[in-house]
Amino acid sequence: MRAPSLRARVRFLGFVPDAALPALYRGASMLVFPSRGEGFDLPPLEAMACGTPVVAGEAGSIPEIADGAALLVDPGDPASIASAMRRLCADDGLRARLVAKGLARAAQLRWPACAEATMAVYREATGGSSSLRRTLRISQPSTGMRS
Description:
Layout: H1 4-7, H2 21-27, E1 31-33, H3 42-49, E2 54-57, H4 62-66, E3 71-73, H5 78-90, H6 92-108, H7 111-126, H8 130-135
Parallel strand pairs: 1-2, 2-3
Helix pairs in contact: 3-6
């Protein structure tokens, strides 16, 4: 981080155990996640599940994950990121809308719902074979953040 004024206010935590994440998300003003990567990025979804608004890069899987529940920015444009952060800090209505949308979106993407959707695809592909249900068992996830 180049700006000395920010060094006093921003902490880089490094590795954080999963058990500590909910408290960090809940205590944050927002999650800023300007990722350019591919894959299913969990931090925006985890933050939404904790009621924390999200500013995220409009790259990879994030637009699909967020589905209107985050402010999306160009991850390569610091001015765009800073503008979204300022908007979120200044606009309580926007913040409240993103929190509500984020909680609803996170509820849609729980592992049991994902497993059930996957089973529906398998059922359709196999013509509803009952042997499939015996072969693929859906178990209830743990109560941790990533379940």
